Structure formats: structure tokens, C-alpha cells
Amino acid sequence: MRYPAIIFDIDGIIVDSEPIHMDLRMEVYKRLQIDVPRKTHFKFIGGSAKRKWQTEVDLPLLLS
């Protein structure tokens, strides 16, 4: 089946996936025993994953 168009939802207009990503990050932090307050996540909505990890848990070496 061919589709006449593809829709990209880059900025979350169609689907707001940020809450799902936040919950997943919180689970990863919990498993790594890293304490990141939930309110901290709200500062980075819409930013890159690299910036979130570097700022929230200070892991620049893992992202180089």
C-alpha cells in the first residue's frame, strides 16, 4: 500500500509524548539509583535527550 503523504509530529501537536518520556526517564533514574526531582524534568520539555542527561544527572562522558 502506498501512502500519499507522511505526517511528522516533531513538536507534539498531534501526540504529546513528553509525559511518556518523562515517566521512562524517571524509571531509568530509579534503576540507576539517581535522584532527579520530577520538577527538574519540566525545565527540559522540548529539549534534546543529550542536554537532559548532561544537565539532570551530569553524565557527559556517556554522551561524548
What does this structure look like?
This protein is an all-alpha fold. 42% of the residues lie in helices and 0% in strands. The chain has 3 helices and no strands. The radius of gyration is 15 Å and the shape is elongated. The N and C termini lie far apart (41 Å). The mean pLDDT is 76.
Walk me through the topology.
Layout: H1 18-31, H2 38-41, H3 49-57
What are the defining features of this structure?
mainly alpha; 64 residues; 3 helices
In terms of structural class, how would the helical and strand content be classed? mainly alpha
Q: What does the overall shape look like?
A: elongated
Query: Please, what is the oligomeric state?
Result: single chain
Main beta sheet, described?
none
**Which stretches of 5+ consecutive residues score pLDDT under 50?**
none
* Elements, N to C (H/E): HHH
Radius of gyration: 15 Å
The number of helices is 3
- Bin the strand percentage: under 5%
Question: What is the arithmetic mean of pLDDT?
Answer: 76
Helix content: 40-55%
Q: Could you tell me how far the N terminus lies from the C terminus, measured between alpha carbons in angstroms?
A: 41 Å
SS elements, strand count: 0
Please sum up the structure shown.
The protein has 64 residues and is mostly helical.
